[in-house]
Design a protein that fits this description.
Chain lengths: 170, 373
């Protein structure tokens, strides 16, 4: 199925849900590249569950899970893929951009989400409710800040080790 | 006489340990030889490549992709170039596509040689590893002639590849392939048919089909569990639809389906397939065509996003690229096979012997920089 067909079938499964304000079909087509389906954060888990279990979709594989800092909001991006149907879809959810940004975990649907969500937590500081082991994965536990945020400023030193060096020229 | 007291021991394996294939740490809970679990601790090689991507221009980021997976730099180069090309709508010539495939398949052979060789070394067979390194050197020489580099190739460009092949380079590669086939036979006799190796790997670290998909294992690790899936065949890109090759899968011949031996033997057989692909490429490559098409110096893809998946040597390499219309990526994400392969260790390790953990990690063929990026 194409993303458009998936979106159509999805809106039939969730007739009462307003996916995006003003849009009947929940597909956003960007100027170039691939379209994606934007879903409301409250319904995310339910929709992903249907996408995994419904035999029309059967998305048995979470190919990638990541986040994008859109400056006014955080966007979590789920790339789903189905080995049975050989189709893929991009699901997005938008979160208010603050210190308490959080979204439900999908670890129980796809086991691979455990580490992918830890990575997003580490580098973006977005919390995943219900995650079994939400710790930093790449950076040390006492690191300050989340580097992939657009407003991240690197600390001058880490435990007395300078993060800058004088210019080699001069 | 009082009873002998036993207790669980917490053992720290790594980060500097010869068999962890790079800087990875495992916290092993063990009672004697049998583990009750191994917890991987990664991140020692985190260089924040994705953040660097947001600061470098589209062309300027290309050398960084080498550092994502230094054993399969060609594949990383091409995956990144493909993502930018798709977003910016750049068409490359057929000759450039073939040059890319040739480079990628040569890279696949030497990456797998190191993977199976070091697996042998980890379980105690030193000689085949040296044989693998000897063959690897020959290919390194060939690739050096092609692009001037022996490890971090920086060969692909947005719009093609930087150099066309040198005169008679194709004959040198074919000569290498001719002498490589009997050596692979010898390698099989030395290692693959070795009773000790089969005993060490057979039935160890069994990953079921469902677990493999649930943990999103990719590439040879997925095929070792019996899933016949290769992006080059199932969702073909570049010129792969024109090439004829098989997808080796694990059959459980040394024990159970999805054990360490299956993952090992899939890699050995993939080397044969890569050799087959290379021979066809040299027959089919068009004589005409630019290696690098003309693209603007400053590439500014229109705002949008793209998710590209390619079959790297360690499996499905995903590149997620978001553009805001400027000359630098807005967000760049590499989804790597080693990362997901590492996450399954915690699930499979309970009940395993410590020595088998070494074989298990080696059979997953993880590369530490690719986990951490």
């Amino acid at each position: 199925m194409t993303p458009q067909e998936i979106a159509k079938n999805l809106s039939q499964s969730f007739p009462d849900t307003n996916f995006v304000e003003g849009a009947k079909l929940p597909v956003t087509n960007v100027t170039s590249g691939e379209p994606s389906i934007v879903v409301p954060a409250g319904k995310l888990k339910e929709i992903l569950k249907v996408l995994k279990t419904d035999t029309r979709f059967s998305f048995d594989c979470l190919s990638s899970l990541t986040a994008v800092d859109r400056k006014e909001s955080f966007e979590i991006v789920y790339h789903l893929f189905s080995y049975k149907q050989k189709h893929s879809v991009t699901i997005k959810v938008s979160l208010p951009r603050d210190e308490n940004a959080h979204v439900e975990t999908v670890e129980d649907l796809w086991a691979t989400a455990n580490w992918l969500e830890r990575e997003v937590y580490d580098l973006f500081g977005i919390k995943f409710d219900g995650h079994s082991d939400l710790r930093r994965i790449m950076l040390p536990d006492d690191w300050v800040g989340h580097p992939l945020r657009k407003d991240y400023n690197e600390a001058e030193d880490y435990h007395g080790i300078s993060t800058t060096r004088p210019s080699l020229i001069q | 006489m009082s009873e002998i007291r036993t207790e669980e021991m917490l053992l720290n394996m790594g980060p500097q340990h010869p068999s962890t294939h790079g800087v990875i740490r495992f916290v092993v809970k063990t009672d004697g030889e049998v583990m009750s679990g191994a917890m991987p601790d990664v991140g020692y090689l985190h260089r924040s490549i994705e953040k660097i991507g947001e600061k470098a221009t589209y062309n300027g980021f290309m050398p960084w992709t080498d550092r994502v997976d230094y054993l399969a730099a060609m594949n990383c180069n091409v995956a990144y170039a493909m993502a930018v090309e798709k977003l910016a709508g750049i068409e490359i010539t057929k000759r450039a596509e073939y040059l890319r495939v040739i480079a990628m398949e040569l890279n696949r052979i030497i990456s797998h040689l190191l993977a199976v060789g070091s697996l042998g070394m980890d379980v105690g067979a030193y000689t085949p590893f040296v044989h693998g390194l000897r063959e690897r050197e020959k290919v390194n020489d060939l690739i050096e002639e092609l692009c001037g580099q022996r490890l971090t190739y920086n060969y692909a460009r947005i719009g093609g590849v930087i150099f066309d092949m040198t005169p008679n380079w194709d004959k040198k590669v074919l000569a290498f392939l001719d002498q490589f086939a009997p050596l692979l036979d010898e390698f099989n006799r030395l290692l693959s048919d070795n009773k000790i190796l089969r005993g060490r790997l057979g039935g160890i670290g069994v990953i079921s089909k469902d677990d493999a998909i649930n943990y999103n294992l990719v590439g040879p690790n997925l095929r070792g569990s019996g899933v016949k899936w290769d992006l080059r065949k199932e969702m073909p890109y570049s010129v792969y639809p024109e090439l004829d090759f098989n997808i080796p899968v694990g059959t459980g011949e040394a024990g159970k389906l999805g054990d360490c031996f299956d993952r090992y033997i899939v890699r050995v057989r993939e080397m044969e397939e890569s050799a087959k692909i290379l021979r066809q490429c040299f027959k089919k490559i068009p004589k005409e065509g630019e290696a690098l098409v003309k693209v603007p110096k400053k590439i500014r893809p229109p705002a949008g996003e793209v998710y590209i998946r390619t079959e790297s040597t360690r499996g499905d390499l995903g590149v997620y690229l978001v553009s805001d219309g400027s000359d630098k990526p807005y967000r760049l994400k590499f989804r790597c096979g080693s990362f997901t392969a590492m996450s399954i260790v915690e699930k499979i390790s309970p009940g395993m012997m410590v020595a088998d953990l070494i074989a298990f990690i080696a059979s997953l063929d993880v590369v530490a920089p690719e986990i951490d990026r």
